[in-house]
Amino acid sequence: YLQGTGVQYKDLDAELAQTRKRGFAISRSELIEGAVAIATPFFDRSGCVAGSIGVFGPEARLTAARQVKIAKLLMNDAMELSQALGFGGAAQRRN
Questions:
Q1: What is the pLDDT of residues 57-73, one digit of tens each?
Q2: What is the DSSP letter of 11?
Q3: Residue 8 Cα distances to 5, 12, 50, 76, angstroms
């Protein structure tokens, strides 16, 4: 599925592992030059990803320090949403 995208499987695999470890994904100038997107998943009662929540904006306003703060807020909100959907915790999560 990566054919023609310019993305190498090993690079994608490493990025996904890093995303799982930190709990959120971040995109910088990938689709739009100067744009930043931060997103984190929320889970249903069976531990499957039910969706994601995120923030998108210009890099000039989303400095590195702000990106970290926003990521933490998103992860907290995602956990609350997951709990509202019946998710029991990280041990229950399915990747």
A1: 999 999 999 999 999 99
A2: H
A3: 8, 6, 27, 32
Burial of 21 (0-12, 13-18, 19+ CB in 10 A): exposed
Q: Which pair of tokens denotes residue 51?
A: 């969706």
Please state the pTM of the whole predicted model: 0.80
C-alpha pair distances (Å), 93 with each of 82, 83, 85, 86, 87 = 10, 12, 13, 12, 8
Q: Where are the beta strands (DSSP E) in the chain?
A: 25-28, 35-43, 49-58
Structure token pair of residue 4: 């023609």
| Angstrom distance (rounded) from CA 25 to CA 54 | 9
> Is pLDDT larger for residue 16 or for residue 6?
16
Residue matched to tokens 């970290």: 68
Residue-level pLDDT at 92 = 59
Cβ-defined contacts of 10-17 (< 8 Å, 24+):
none
